[in-house]
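re the bet — no i am not wrong, look at it urself. input seq straight from the record:
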Amino acid sequence: MKTLSKVGMMCALAGSLFLSSCASDYYVASRPVEPVYVRPVAPYPNAYWVPGEWVYRGGGYVYRNGYYVRPRANRVYIQGGWTRGPRGYAWRRGHWR
């Protein structure tokens, strides 16, 4: 009985993780216009500029300015971008690969 209970809990956890990963796409009818701003001067040598991104808040996307970080060894930054889906446009976040 304990084994069946554990399997049930694991299935419920896996299902909730799957559903939460699917719920991360927020669609809008049209892509917002990216604001124009001046990139600040790098705060230290070899600083890497992570471009600004769109974040879904309060029923729509808001723009979050870029920022400087230390580069990650043996990795490259893949910039985020808009993707077109059946329900409109969704933002795919940038990430290190």
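see?? The chain has a mean pLDDT of 83. told u. also Strands lie at 48-50, 53-57, 60-64, 67-69, 77-78, 81-85, 88-92, 95-96. so pay up
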